[in-house]
Amino acid sequence: ARPCARRAPLRALRPMDPLGPAIEVMGSPRHVALPVLNARGDEYAGVVTDAMVAHALAVGEVENALLAPVGTLALDVLVRIRPGDDLSVMAAKLGGNPIVLVEDNDGLPAGFAFREDLWPLVTGTRGR
Question: Tens of pLDDT along 55-83?
Fold first, then answer.
């Protein structure tokens, strides 16, 4: 996982949030993707990734794309890794999804793990 050394909450978006401010948040290394909550804020609706943002900007006028609500994007499903998940559960989630949300002991989003993070977990090495 790539959580930030200083513990700051991972920002979550709502479906009506415009894409422009989300891009500003995603500009930091800690926020390469952002979870999106449903309108009530009580469940995850999906995740916005950098690839999704690039596609949204490429297919229409940039000004319109920046004002568009993130809920109009085809959000990826948000898969979560929770404390207590064993290695086989983490491997299945990371093997089947390019990005997963890592939650802390309080169930709050701590950061994201990526498929390439799986190898060091399995082998105990620092990576390839």
Answer: 888 887 888 888 989 998 889 889 999 98
